[in-house]
């Protein structure tokens, strides 16, 4: 048996486009690098509130820059990401609270589905400009990910329970304790140290810290590590 | 920053804390001897870099072949050895370390308060703003009749992709000059 895998936590919110980009890179590398990827559904609104930070899109020149940056990164990372038409409404008004509580429930009861359901929520809001706030929207994403309708409905009923609200809150507080002021926030545990990395653009640095090889955002597919 | 309405990230306490560590890790990975100055708020928010940037503006106008080295020596002072870059003797020391003669450097230093230098720095800054800059570094790549704007030190792999060039990490193997 080789050395133990290093835990890498990814705190993310499906409302955050850069979270999607970071998520896809880590999902690609989790079977290449000797890591144990722990996905942590988090509330970006909670992280912003706690840190006193504001969404970058509130500054007009940053909003303009982001539109193009996301398009170029999507092409480079081969992720079909696209700005929603009314992106201020999506981010600032509609939000993602129900979706993130749903992912919290998936993580608790069907963790093996978390990656796919997260991806289908991103595909809705950040690729096809579809809603993710209504129950039927969340159900559609869960079903597209491969969950049964009954299984998805059962989880949906739990999202307003204090258990789910508290679990999302706790994960968000954990991100804040690590110093997060935005998402995606990656925490790598190695050699008794904790390294905090903000953004989808710190993955090559993560590889360096882990002593692993960086092969760009689209590494050649490899069979699962033995 | 003024033109865009942006603020230095370090004004948010959690960002300042994050940056300290981020810069250290990136410095190790990029093999750049970068180190936070002890009183970094004073350096960034109070002391600034106006004279230094006017000096580099003058170097760019009169000795452009020295611009890379003098820029590097100014960074080595403020961002590696925690030394001043606001006083005339500080700027002179950087220029000399870069290989400029004392007379040559002094001559340029005398020009930094002229309206020519003030205006040239203003014009370059306005050009960055016209490209949509809200912070620095800001890279603008011109290819195939298009202009691509990239913000930050972490968009260089993307730049390689846009240029159709190979990314070999932040410390590529040294190569002899392209023929």
Automatic annotation (TrEMBL), chain A:
Active site per database record: 16
GO biological process: glutathione metabolic process
EC number: 2.5.1.18
Similarity comment text for this entry: Belongs to the GST superfamily. Kappa family.
Phylogenetic placement of the source organism: Eukaryota, Metazoa, Chordata, Craniata, Vertebrata
Leading EC class: transferase
Protein name per its UniProtKB record: Glutathione S-transferase kappa
CC terms in the record's Gene Ontology section: mitochondrion; peroxisome
Keyword Transmembrane part of the UniProt annotation: no
DSBA-like thioredoxin domain ranges (all copies): 7-210
Reactions mediated catalytically: RX + glutathione = an S-substituted glutathione + a halide anion + H(+)
InterPro entries: DSBA-like_thioredoxin_dom, GST_Kappa/NadH, GSTK, HCCAis_GSTk, Thioredoxin-like_sf
PANTHER family, per database record: GLUTATHIONE S-TRANSFERASE KAPPA (PTHR42943), GLUTATHIONE S-TRANSFERASE KAPPA 1 (PTHR42943:SF2)
Transmembrane portions of the chain: none
Keyword Transferase: yes
Keywords in alphabetical order: Transferase
GO molecular function, one term: glutathione peroxidase activity
UniProtKB/TrEMBL annotation, chain B:
EC number: 2.5.1.18
One term of GO molecular function: glutathione peroxidase activity
Keyword Transferase: yes
Top EC class of this enzyme: transferase
Domain DSBA-like thioredoxin: 1-163
GO biological process: glutathione metabolic process
Catalysed reaction, written as an equation: RX + glutathione = an S-substituted glutathione + a halide anion + H(+)
Keywords from the named record: Transferase
Pfam families (UniProt xref): DSBA
Cellular component annotations (GO), alphabetically ordered: mitochondrion; peroxisome
InterPro entries: DSBA-like_thioredoxin_dom (IPR001853), GST_Kappa/NadH (IPR051924), HCCAis_GSTk (IPR014440), Thioredoxin-like_sf (IPR036249)
Top-level taxonomic group: Eukaryota
PANTHER family per the UniProt record, alphabetical: GLUTATHIONE S-TRANSFERASE KAPPA, GLUTATHIONE S-TRANSFERASE KAPPA 1
Family note: Belongs to the GST superfamily. Kappa family.
Protein name: Glutathione S-transferase kappa 1
Organism of this sequence: Myotis myotis (Greater mouse-eared bat)
């Amino acid at each position: 048996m080789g050395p133990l895998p290093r835990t890498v936590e990814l705190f993310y919110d499906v409302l955050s486009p850069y979270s999607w980009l970071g998520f896809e890179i880590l999902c690609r590398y989790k079977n290449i690098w000797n890591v144990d990827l722990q996905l942590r559904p988090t509330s970006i609104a909670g992280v912003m509130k706690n840190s006193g930070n504001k969404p970058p899109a509130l500054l007009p020149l940053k909003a303009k820059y982001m539109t193009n940056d996301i398009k170029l990164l999507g092409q480079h990372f081969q992720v079909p990401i696209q700005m929603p038409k009314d992106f201020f409404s999506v981010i600032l008004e509609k939000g993602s609270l129900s979706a993130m509580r749903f992912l919290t429930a998936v993580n608790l009861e069907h963790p093996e589905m978390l990656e796919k359901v997260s991806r289908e929520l991103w595909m809705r809001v950040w690729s096809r400009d579809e809603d993710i706030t209504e129950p039927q929207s969340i159900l559609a994403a869960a079903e597209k990910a491969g969950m049964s309708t009954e299984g998805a409905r059962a989880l949906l009923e739990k999202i307003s329970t204090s258990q789910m609200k508290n679990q999302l809150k706790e994960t968000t507080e954990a991100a804040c304790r690590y110093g997060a002021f935005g998402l995606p926030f990656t925490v790598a545990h190695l050699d008794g140290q904790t390294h905090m990395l903000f953004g989808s653009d710190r993955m090559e640095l993560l590889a360096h810290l882990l002593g692993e090889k960086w092969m760009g955002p689209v590494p050649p597919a490899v069979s699962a590590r033995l | 920053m003024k033109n865009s309405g942006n603020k230095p990230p370090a004004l948010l306490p959690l960002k300042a804390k994050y940056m300290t560590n981020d810069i250290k890790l990136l410095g190790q990975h990029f093999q750049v001897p970068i180190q936070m100055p002890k009183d970094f708020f004073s350096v960034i928010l109070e002391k600034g870099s106006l004279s230094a940037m006017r000096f580099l503006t003058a170097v760019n106008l009169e000795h452009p072949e020295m611009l890379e080295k003098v820029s590097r020596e100014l960074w080595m002072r403020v961002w590696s050895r925690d030394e001043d870059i606001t006083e005339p003797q500080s700027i002179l020391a950087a220029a000399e370390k870069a290989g400029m003669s004392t007379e040559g450097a002094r001559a340029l230093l005398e020009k930094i308060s002229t309206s020519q230098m003030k205006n040239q720095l203003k014009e370059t800054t306005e050009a960055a703003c016209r490209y949509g800059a809200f912070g620095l570094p800001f890279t603008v790549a011109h290819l195939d009749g298009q202009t691509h704007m990239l913000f930050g030190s972490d968009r260089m792999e993307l730049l390689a992709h846009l240029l159709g060039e190979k990314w070999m990490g932040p410390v590529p193997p040294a190569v002899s000059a392209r023929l």
